[in-house]
Amino acid sequence: MGLGTEASSVAETALLANPLREGTRVRKTPAPCSIVIFGASGDLTERKLIPALYYLAREHLLPVSFTVTGCAKSPYTTETFREKARQAVQSHLKIPASEAPFLESFAQSLFYISDDFGDVKAYSLLDSMLDRFDRERGTGGNRLFYLATPPSFFPVIVQHLGRAGLAKTRDPEKNWTRIIIEKPFGRDHASAQELNRTVTSVFDEEQVFRIDHYLGKETVQNLLVFRFANGIYEPIWNRRYIDQVQIAVAESLGVENRGAYYEEAGLLRDMIQNHVLQLLSLVAMEPPARFAGTAVRDEKAKVLRAIRPIPPDAVNDLAVRGQYGEGFAGGKKVSAYRSEPKVSPSSVTETYAALKLFIDNWRWADVPFYLRSGKRLAKRVSEITVQFRSVPHLMFRDAIEDIIEPNVMSLRIQPNEGIAVRFGAKLPGPAMRIRPVQMEFRYGESFGAPPPTAYETLLLDCMLGDNTLFNRDDAVELAWELVMPILDRWKNDGERDLAFYEAGSWGPAEADRLLQRDGRRWQRL
Ligand SMILES: NC(=O)c1ccc[n+]([C@@H]2O[C@H](COP(=O)([O-])OP(=O)(O)OC[C@H]3O[C@@H](n4cnc5c(N)ncnc54)[C@H](OP(=O)(O)O)[C@@H]3O)[C@@H](O)[C@H]2O)c1
């Protein structure tokens, strides 16, 4: 395999094309490095990782010298991998023809090893290739391994990396070696603990970056800015002023071609254990002393630790599960989950879950956190809504028949990212009538340029050694510990209490009753 030293590095080419960007590049650019993607012929690499790396290169955010080595079983050559990467960039970023030379320069930094993850030969070949890159391409002895493989391969790859000496940093004063591990991190508490043990027997915790791409979303980070860079909200962000918090992550798609994976996972594992609990910890955490790894991760872990455990005999009072039946999506008739490809016709896997949780600390005592997530719901939307307490006394006697809705703050994660506040306003006219109105901030309208995707942010953070937006071992285990009583109960119950809902609806009526029992209802999304 030739390493093609003739091509100047991508970042150098980009700089020549646009020297004015140098200031930006120098400030934010990581040190030269070699990136290795395990699972390089897979869906995630094609749809997210290659486009994200190209975007970073184009924005002058990749180091001056870098290489990307893909590893997978498919018998590609380096040239096939480069061609696949060109196609992935074209189809996912829709770049103009004028960028073709830059894309070509990017492609020249890609390489490929075809082998089975279990084959020790692949790792010694990788080791010698990375050494060569250091010598010939100036990658500086820094390595980033990305595990974009089915989770069953995480331990095997980690152990092989360890045995081949690839997990060790050459000179810790000068170099770094890091590993990004995709989700799902384990399938229950015991397997997550086991995986943590395996990973940390080979890598130090500071080298490990457990990814939850939700944390890389601009709006999720904006949640921290909103809470901790503004003086007016934090004083009211507590049980004295907040009545309830709702977190919704709704998808309109069904399981598509991932039926086999979904049958094993289910919604609680796929969404709540990771994304939704991450959102909850960011909404509820105490102000960290600084925006840095340990400070933020400590506060997030404290929230997870403070969530009241769900007793096995209270699961049905605090959690609802559902599965979609037939219905309509985008105006088209769609099949029931049980009729999806690679799904059992008698499957009891949940495609919807709703939960009521409490955080037992001074800030949140007795404030319910209602979480819901599902597939084939009425629309795709992720939103956090914070409902404030009603006024203690209403002095507007004329308006007594009007609907006086409590103030609600909505933090929209996707789509139409933004923040809205609902409050009562006087209806124009002689009478004192009150109507709810909305004040809105929209990310797209305020800042124009589209935000980077989560993978761009997180890949860059990892290269820069910033683990703030990645999960620490304790947080992953705490989140699993929390959902285990629900998973166990649902497993034992079989079909009992599994509520069916029509595809394209907002989920089962049982989830509405979860809130109705408390005199509340789900916010409209
Ligand atoms: N896809 C997404 O949108 C997405 C989103 C979030 C998280 N994730 C996570 O990312 C990871 C990858 O997902 P994916 O959708 O990209 O999976 P995928 O399309 O099934 O790709 C799996 C990759 O692993 C390789 N592979 C499997 N067995 C191998 C073996 N024995 N030896 C060598 N290579 C082997 C495959 O290579 P060959 O095909 O060449 O055999 C392929 O490159 C998973 O952990 C998933 O949960 C994915």
Task: Break the fold down into its secondary structure elements and pairings.
Blueprint: H1 10-17, H2 22-28, E1 33-38, H3 43-58, E2 66-72, H4 78-93, H5 100-107, E3 110-114, H6 120-137, E4 143-147, H7 154-163, E5 177-181, H8 189-202, E6 208-210, H9 218-228, E7 242-250, H10 259-265, H11 267-284, H12 293-306, H13 315-318, E8 319-329, E9 332-334, E10 352-357, E11 369-374, E12 381-388, E13 408-414, E14 418-426, E15 434-442, H14 443-447, H15 454-464, H16 473-493, E16 498-503, H17 509-516
Parallel strand pairs: 1-2, 1-4, 2-3, 4-5, 5-6, 7-11, 8-16
Antiparallel strand pairs: 7-12, 8-9, 8-10, 10-11, 12-13, 13-14, 14-15
Helix pairs in contact: 3-4, 3-15, 7-8, 8-16, 11-12, 11-16, 12-16
Residues 39-44, 47, 72-74, 116-117, 148-151, 182-184 line the site of NADP nicotinamide-adenine-dinucleotide phosphate.
Report the count of strand segments. Answer: 16
The unreliable regions are 1-9, 11-27
State the domain count: 2
- The total count of helices amounts to 17
CATH fold group of the largest domain: Dihydrodipicolinate Reductase, domain 2
- Please describe the biggest sheet, giving its number of strands, its sense, and whether it closes into a barrel: 10 strands, mixed
Ions, cofactors and other bound molecules:
NADP nicotinamide-adenine-dinucleotide phosphate
Q: Give the integer mean of the pLDDT values.
A: 92
Helix fraction, binned, reads 25-40%
Rg over C-alpha atoms, rounded to the nearest angstrom? 25 Å
